[in-house]
Amino acid sequence: MAYEIPVTQARAELAELINRVVYGGERVVVTRHGKPLVALVSAEDLERLEALAEAVESVEERTVSTVTSIGSVPPGSSERHRFGIAAEHRGPDAT
Known about the structure:
The protein is an alpha+beta fold.
């Protein structure tokens, strides 16, 4: 759990908060009216968060690419008969 501190108090104790993050390994959440506003994390934590975000984005891109390519392949007549499909939807411009 992160240490929470109001923004007004954080202003007065910024140097101490930075030391807690850098040397104490803590994460500090600065709040305004009791709601989280910003977080102070170490540069190491930030690097891990950015790497995780890049990995998630890469997986999402691959998933969209795969689904798009699968969706664009028209089923052959053998698949329709194999799965007992009697009709197929064709778009308005299909002949």
